[in-house]
Amino acid sequence: MPLPESLLPAARALFGDRLPLARQYADLLATDGVLRGLIGPREAPRIWDRHLLNCAAMTELIQPDALLVDVGSGAGLPGIVLAVARPDLTVALVEPLARRTVFLDEMVDRLGLGAQVSVLRGRAEEFVRGPLSGRLSPADVVTARAVAPIDRLAAWCLPLSAIGGRLLAIKGASAADEVEEHQDAVGRLGGGAPLVRRCGVGLLDQPATVVEIVRERAVGGTGRARAASGRGDPPRGRRGGTARSR
Q1: Containing H/E element for 182?
Q2: 165 is in an annotated binding site
Q3: Residue ranges of the domains in the chain?
């Protein structure tokens, strides 16, 4: 998928010397992603502005060398985009559907991201107290895009993060209303007050809207705080196809 000339400055700023890799991923999404039903045909012309740049703008909220878990990765948005834009990140893509994890594995291989990105099949909650518990170390950052309302996201994603870690959820124009509706539920789940961030201001015509929630405490025996002496082990295994699909 060609990169529109008008978006080239933003793409260069967000992807740097990995822009050729981002171009390759855009082409794969617009071809294989559409053919295999992971990207809608009408979305193909908007791969760059609506998907890649919107996701890559999140990098301004992510600290260096972070361990990142992307929940409900689908076609790799935002997880693969963040890995391409930030080679310092260690990224685990969590996805329950088999056909999507197959696609993600192929994308990781074709983009040469195997040393940086792992693909794990299962529901987020199964990595906390279910059959896949222990497969993920507590994350610095958990990301999600177009997965669920804030209260459900907090229930699924906060237990995957370390105490002090953060959930970053890409949302739409109604993010502030959603935060107001669910902030009490977030607090009960151990999260701090949700904040609405705008990423890519001055770079993108439509900055990305991201809801940020810090995990302040463990709730219900799901505490997985990282030892003070280190960040824990990275995600293990690229193929975790033992969990049920949603």
Answers
A1: helix 175-188
A2: no
A3: 61-214
Q: Note the pLDDT tens digit of each residue in 57-86.
A: 999 999 999 999 999 999 999 999 999 999
SS (H, E, C) 206-238: CCEEEEEEEECCCCCCCCCCCCCCCCCCCCCCC
Say if residue 125 carries a ligand binding annotation. yes
| 72 assigned to a ligand binding site | yes
Whether domain 61-214 has CATH 3.90.550.10: the reply is: no
Per the annotation, does 77 bind a ligand? yes
Within its chain, how far is the Cα of 218 from the centroid? 22
Q: What is the pLDDT of residues 121-176, one digit of tens each?
A: 999 999 998 788 888 999 999 999 977 899 999 999 999 999 999 999 999 988 99
pTM assigned to the model:
0.89
Mapped onto helix, strand or coil, the DSSP state of residue 118 is strand
CA distance 87 to 68: 12
Residue 227 has pLDDT above 80, yes or no: no
Q: Is 243 annotated as a binding residue?
A: no
